[in-house]
TrEMBL record, chains A, B:
This is 2-keto-3-deoxygalactonate kinase. The lineage of its organism: Bacteria, Pseudomonadati, Pseudomonadota, Gammaproteobacteria, Pseudomonadales. Keywords: Kinase, Transferase. GO terms for biological process: D-galactonate catabolic process. GO terms for molecular function: 2-dehydro-3-deoxygalactonokinase activity.
Length: 300, 300
C-alpha cells in the first residue's frame, strides 16, 4: 500500500468519517463510526479519532489531519469561531489546532460560516462548497445542500455571498414521527411521485394551514400512509423552494447530495423549470478537505 | 343540595371533565380526571366515567349524560360519524348512544364535524360553537378556538359554513421541546411581548426560512431563551393568522379560550387591527352541552 500522506475527516453531530489519502490524492482507506460530536465530551475527541485512524499513522513522523463539521462547534473538540460572509468558504487563516497527546498527529479544524442579517450559521457545508469551487473556480450560482437542515448558499468569484438554512428534514422527521400526522404515515416505503408533486403544488398555501389536511384526508378518504408521507415531503420541500430569497431567482443551482434525497430536490426544482446539476456529497467533501490541506501544507 | 338533573361531559384525548347540573342549569358539582380518550380501551370508558360521577347518580331513575369531544372518535367509546358542513354545529339527529351496563345512566355523544374540500375534521369544538350560538343565535363571523390544534370556523345563520385547522400548538411544542431550537429555549417564563410581536411581524416570510434564525441568533447574539420562545410563538401564530382564507377577511372574530392563551390570540389579532371578543372556554362548552341536552330532552 502507498504511504498515507494525510487524513481527511468529516465530523458531524452524529457521525465521524475519515479517509487516508496518498500524496497523489488517492483514497487508501476509509473508516466511519457513530462517535459524532453530539455524543462526545471534550476529552473524548482524540480517542474517538484514534479509534478509527490509529493503524494509518506512522510513528516516525507527524501526519496532518484536516477536519470539518460540528467538531469545531462550541460543544465540540475546540471551538473554531465562524468566519463571516461574504468571504471564501474556508477561512484558512482562522484554522484551529486542538492540542493532542499523540505525537503522530497534527489536527486542523476548518471554521464554519456565519451571516449577521438574517442571522444564520453553518459548519461542514463550507467545505463542500470549497470542494465544488476546487473543480469550478468560476461557479456563479446557488449551492443546495439538502439534509436535516438544508443549506442554500450563493457563490460568486470564489466567495460565499450569503446563505440560508431551512429546517426541512428535521420538521419532516418531527411531523411524520411524533405529531398527530404520524397516525396516517406509518411505514417507510419509497417516495410516491404523484403525491410528492401534489405536495409541491400546495406550496403556495401557508404551511400551517395545509398540514392537518393530511390527517383529515386519512380519516375521511383513507389517504394511504405512503401517499401521506410523500405528500408531506412535497409540502415541506415546496415551502423551502418558495422561501428562497427573490434576489436568487434565475441563478443556476447545484445540488450536493446523494441518492434519493438529492434526486428528490432535483425533481422538485425541475417542476419549477430549474435544471439543477447534482454532485455526490462524499466526492465534494473530500475535494474540499483536499483544498484545505493544500493551503495548510503551503502555509507551514 | 338540589337534585342532579343531568350531567355534562367534555371528554378529550387527554382529559375527562364532568359537571352535575340542576334543572335550572346551575353547576352543582364538578370533577375531572386524566382518563382521556387516548388512554382508554373501548371497554374502559363506562368505568372511567363512573369513577367521576357515581356519587351524582340516583338509583331510582336514569340520569342523562351528554358528552362531546374525542370520546366519539373511531378510537373512542363508540364512533359518532362526522356531520358534514355546512350544517348546524350539533347534528343532534345523529347523536350516538353507547351501550352501558349501569342502569342509572343514559349517555349521548355529540358528533364532530367534517369538511370535504379542503379536508378537515373537528370534535368538541362543535359544542363550543353551539354554546356561542346559544347566547348569540344571529352571530355572523369567525370563531377562533386556540389549542394544540387551533380551529377557525365561519358561522352564519346558525350554521357552520366551513372551518380550518392549524397545528400551531403542536408545532410549538415539537419545535421548542424537541428540535435543535430547544437548545436556545429552555425554561418556561412568561410571554415576552416585544419578542412575540417581532415574531408576528415576520409572518410575511415563509415559516421554514425563519425558524433556524432563532438558533443562529442565540449562537451569534446571545438571544435569551425567554425571548426565543416568545418569538417562536409569535412566528407560528402570525403564520396561522396569515394563513386564514381570504374570503374570511373583514368578518368579526370571537376567540374562545382561557387566560394567557386566549389573550395571546386577542393581542395578535389586535396588531392586525382586528378587535376580537373573548369568551371563556368552560362557560361556552357548558352552554353548548346544555343546548344539546335541551334538544335531547325535547326529542324523547
Amino acid at each position: 500500500m502507498s504511504e498515507v500522506s494525510w487524513i481527511a475527516v468529516d465530523w458531524g453531530t452524529t457521525q465521524l468519517r475519515a479517509w487516508a489519502l496518498s500524496g497523489s490524492g488517492e483514497v487508501l482507506q476509509h473508516a466511519a463510526s457513530a462517535r459524532g460530536m453530539g455524543s462526545l465530551a471534550v476529552d473524548q475527541f482524540e480517542g474517538a479519532l484514534l479509534e478509527l485512524i490509529d493503524g494509518w499513522l506512522d510513528a516516525a513522523r507527524v501526519t496532518e489531519v484536516v477536519a470539518c463539521g460540528m467538531v469545531g462547534a462550541r460543544q465540540g473538540w475546540r471551538e473554531a469561531p465562524y468566519a463571516e460572509v461574504p468571504c471564501a468558504p474556508q477561512a484558512m487563516a482562522q484554522v484551529i489546532r486542538p492540542e493532542v497527546s499523540d505525537k503522530r498527529l497534527r489536527v486542523s479544524i476548518i471554521p464554519g460560516l456565519c451571516q449577521r442579517a438574517p442571522a444564520d450559521v453553518l459548519r461542514g457545508e463550507e467545505t463542500q462548497i470549497a470542494g465544488l469551487l476546487a473543480a469550478r473556480p468560476d461557479y456563479h450560482g446557488l449551492v443546495c445542500l439538502p439534509g436535516t437542515h438544508s443549506k442554500w448558499a450563493e457563490v460568486r468569484e470564489g466567495q460565499v455571498l450569503g446563505f440560508q438554512t431551512f429546517m426541512t428534514g428535521e420538521l419532516f422527521a418531527l411531523l411524520s414521527g411524533q405529531s398527530v400526522l404520524r397516525h396516517g404515515m406509518q411505514g417507510d416505503g419509497p417516495l410516491e411521485l404523484p403525491a410528492f408533486d401534489m405536495g409541491l403544488r400546495a406550496a403556495e398555501r401557508p404551511l400551517l394551514g395545509t398540514l392537518f389536511g393530511l390527517r383529515a384526508e386519512s380519516l375521511l378518504e383513507g389517504l394511504a400512509p405512503g401517499a401521506a408521507r410523500s405528500r408531506l415531503s412535497g409540502l415541506l420541500i415546496g415551502q423551502e423552494l418558495a422561501g428562497l430569497p427573490e434576489r436568487w431567482q434565475g441563478l443556476p443551482v447545484c445540488v450536493i447530495g446523494d441518492g434519493e434525497a438529492a434526486e428528490r430536490y432535483r425533481h422538485a426544482l425541475a417542476t419549477l423549470n430549474i435544471a439543477a446539476q447534482t454532485l455526490g456529497a462524499e466526492q465534494v467533501t473530500l475535494a474540499g478537505l483536499a483544498a484545505a490541506h493544500q493551503q495548510i501544507r503551503g502555509g507551514t
